[in-house]
Write the structure tokens for this entry.
Amino acid sequence: MPEDQYQRLQQRSAADVKELWDLLDAIKDPEIPALSIWDLGILRDVQRNGDQVIVTITPTYSGCPAMDNITTDVIQLLNDHGYSDATVKLSLSPAWSSEWMSAEGRKKLREYGVAPPEDAGLDDDGLTPDAHAACPHCRSRNTRRISEFGSTACKALFQCDDCGEPFDYFKKI
Amino acid sequence: MSDQIKQATQEYATRLGDDSVVLGHRISEWVSYGPFLEEDIAYGNVALDYIGRARMFYAYAAELADDGRDEDDFAYMRNDREYRNLLLMELPKGDFAYSQVRQLFADVYYTLMLPELLQSKDETLSAIAAKAIKETKYHLRRSRDWVLRLGDGTEESHQRTQKALDQLWGYTHELFDMDETEQLLADAGIGVDVAKLRDSWLKMVSDILTEATLTVPEDSWAVRGGRIGYHTENLGICSLRCRLCTVHILAVSGN
């Protein structure tokens, strides 16, 4: 397991508010509803001071429009469970990395029809390559990139030359 | 943080926010006008990255101002003369070649400027740079690819791209200007000394243009003024800011 993912798991299992981490598994990314904010690595920290709950999240990309939705959803969920004093803090540093995505998240992403970051290599510049991301539908590597930017900032668009299906690839950043 | 540094940092964050929001808006004007669907979506994505940066810079400016204004007030509720963006960012989208050449200039600029900002002693500015650097890599690959493709493409695409270069070149000098505020921050290890980036920028841009069979323009003219609020007519209340602010102003006034 990559170091970053291991650290996240350690942080969660050592937390004294485990029930809040578990509760927040119900918050899904509005753009990829198969994944929770934990799966994506957007959820950074949960703290409780007396009656106050502070949840820290981080955006995947600067302009990620899902942040406002997620903030509203987290506060609503906590309020519904009796935590009336809930705050969501946005943290910019360290910058989000696709390395933070959980192993479970990667599997769910693939099942949802989006190729996870590790299903493609990197080109010489460390960016998305122009071919050979594994197709999440038929697993073929006979694929090519058709657009650098997909339906959201975090994805690129590929097409499979074996099954013919276009698919999103979740970029490594 | 001394009052002088704090005020300068607020001004600096506002300037960087203005650059981002104005360019982000210009890029977004391509949505539904792109040459094909994927390009349309790509433009939307890049625009979103810039609007996101603007939010982060403005939120920080608002935090430093601590006078009840929020990021939206910085983005929408100032008049034209209070905008401090570089003029390059506000020029109309023009044709596809024009927008891609402008984007190449901006992407190379941020490729050089953001790693410097990452070293800032100001933690927030450094954190914003850390996020933006990753995005800019993708932006540059796309604008570089397009300039190569258009420059070394058909006779018409070559001619249009050269024309865009010649029309935009004079606006690039301002990118490397320093004034008292920015010098103060550069000396304090907070801001970037952009004057030092010009040689590297020229080298990177020239290499790409030469590969694209284009001619690097001569430095025969320069337009400046964005950083002191002297804008071209393209920013004004009848053009960009009208579209940018009207909806917000109507929404907050409850009409």
